[in-house]
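Notes continue from the previous slide.

Worked example: a multi-chain complex. Inputs as given:
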Amino acid sequence: MGIKKEIVDRFKNVLKKENLKFTNQRFLVFSALLTNEGHFDCDDLIRIINKKDGNVSRATAYRTLDLLVKYDFARKMVLDDGIAKYENKILSKHHDHMIDIETDEIIEFVNDEIERIQEEIAKSHGYKIVKHVHQLFVKKIK
Amino acid sequence: MGIKKEIVDRFKNVLKKENLKFTNQRFLVFSALLTNEGHFDCDDLIRIINKKDGNVSRATAYRTLDLLVKYDFARKMVLDDGIAKYENKILSKHHDHMIDIETDEIIEFVNDEIERIQEEIAKSHGYKIVKHVHQLFVKKIK
DNA sequence: ATTATTGCAAATCCTTTGCAGTACC
DNA sequence: GGTACTGCAAAGGATTTGCAATAAT
């Protein structure tokens, strides 16, 4: 159930490199994100942590999340509501989302051709893709 | 330099339909967005308006922008900094966005093949696309 | 011991809202 | 004259920050 030792070590190395200490709070935020699937805002994660393991303040959670994003353990995404959502970037397979605007049902999809063309577009402008958001808001055909 | 009468009329009709009045402030916000190309936050637009035509308060600007988004005159986009950006949706051809995460520069792109595959994916699940968000967060290749 | 870390509360930033005065029909 | 509109200033909500107490090495 735990996180692979290799990943935890990677986290420890990042901390060392940044002259930061490996504290329980930082580990709790790190674990909350890496052992749960989905998109969480800061308070979701704090709730998850408080439910079983301990306590982390919002200040610390945000500070740690910034760090996780900076070192590619987490992906940050802000939709139109302006609330930052974070998701596991290490263990989750990539996928995009199709959202049924009438039922809120979420269907995942991946299309290699789209992935390939995206990369090509970025490259042709001299860029490489760091992350992307691709969401189809859809409606059932009657 | 003006906006096509047809578009202004469409705006007037929306206002009528919503029991709202066609006021100078609403028209200034509407014009600021529809006669400028680019992605603007609320204060950008207020600055544009104040520079030549008059004054609009932030409250009114936000209220009008909501309306413009609701009726498809404007597109709203929120990136990781949490600041809402608005762009002309009427006069600009459909496009997606590539965002340089180091400079915040926004580059537009369109790819017919991606558009086609998207539709196909939705259709194969029995859906049609109402709108979509496709953003590539990129980084210059050194 | 020394240096970084934490949590709190205050501060910030963008955005929304209540309200009193103003403008529109 | 009666509604709807505006701008102000205050309120809101998410995130950040200063600081004194606390924990890690």
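Summary box: Residues 76 and 86 of chain A are 5 Å apart (CA to CA). Residues 5-17 of chain A form the longest helix (13 residues).
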